[in-house]
Amino acid sequence: MTKIRIAIQKSGRLNEESLQILKDCGISIDNGKDQLKASSRNFPMEVFYLRNGDIPQYLRDGVVDIAIIGENVLIEKGEDISIAEKLGFSKCKVSLAVPKSFKYNSVKDFEGKRIATSYPNTVISYLKDKGVSADLHIISGSVEIAPNIGLADGICDIVSSGSTLFKNNLKEVEVMLTSEAVLAVSPKISEERKELLAKLQFRIQSVLRARGSKYVLLNAPNDKLEEVLSLLPGMRSPTVLPLAEEGWSSVHTVINKDSFWEVIDELKKAGAEGILVCPIEKMVL
Questions:
Q1: Which of 68, 57, 80, 53 is nearest to 14 (CA)?
Q2: What separation in angstroms does the CA of 44 have from each of 3, 7, 27, 256?
């Protein structure tokens, strides 16, 4: 049987969230401790656990068909590799930072300065676009210490919460790009495996829609029903059912999580009562 081969990060947060979305898609992975390759028992898939920075080359060579990888890694090492789906987790920024004591005005302040980074291509491209020339020190691993030991004047690195910068007496001064986990596709994927990719994408899209939505049930007096319905979105339109108590209706709908509280506040003002909110496991359209 043909199996689609997917690469995910060997360890760390991206590994955990990648396995979680596969689990939410109903895919069970039989992975023992320290295995570098594992199979799914209920979907034609093999999982390869790889170093994040090596994944673009594995995709390019056709060793794996797809991968869950940070968009920032593709920008640095795999701009020729296409993205099938943005996954909405592992969000971060790739930023320039300098010591807190550095009086920073603009990116022009990096002219002639030394920058420590694991993302040389990203930095070169960004600074070239700004007309700035700097001296890069390429470091694999933690770069935050470089200014403190006199190796560099500033750094370029991933920023999530900013706590690592703070601990190393650094401040973020330029956001070069924002990133999140993506589903990347090998240019050498076969037609047969493209069919499996389409099935996987269908499941992923259903999970992502569910993660971004809440199922809402509420009661509304019939004389306020029109106003309540005007506030509600829905997959097609809200469902309205009569209650046993005359003059009242039950309304069922789906609300986007990002605008959830604003909509709830408006519904209460319009006369909605007994509002019940439920998580959605999957949403198939």
A1: 68
A2: 5, 14, 9, 33
Q: Residue 243 is which amino acid? A: L
3-state secondary structure of 189: coil
Name the one residue in this structure whose structure tokens are 């007496």: 169
- For residue 171, what are its two tokens? 């401040």
Amino acid at 278: C
**Amino acid letter, 77:** K
In this prediction the pTM is 0.85
Interval 100-119 mean pLDDT: 94
H or E element that contains 251: strand 248-256
SS3 23: helix
What is the maximum span of the chain, computed from C-alpha positions, in angstroms? 77
Cα separation, 107 vs 103, whole angstroms: 12
Kindly give, in sequence order, each residue whose CB lies less than 8 Å from that of residue 198, ignoring residues fewer than 6 positions away: none
Beta-carbon contacts of residue 250 (< 8 Å; ≥ 6 apart): 217, 218, 219, 240, 241, 242, 243
Measured distance CA(4)–CA(187) in Å, rounded: 14
Termini Cα distance of the chain: 29
For the stretch 185-196, pLDDT in tens is: 999 999 999 999
What values do phi and psi take at 193, rounded to 5?
A: -75, -25
Q: What is the mean pLDDT of the chain?
A: 92
Radius of gyration (C-alpha) of the chain in whole angstroms = 24
Quick one: tokens of 176? 């070069």
Rounded mean pLDDT, 187-214: 95
Distance between CA atoms of residues 201 and 218, nearest Å: 33
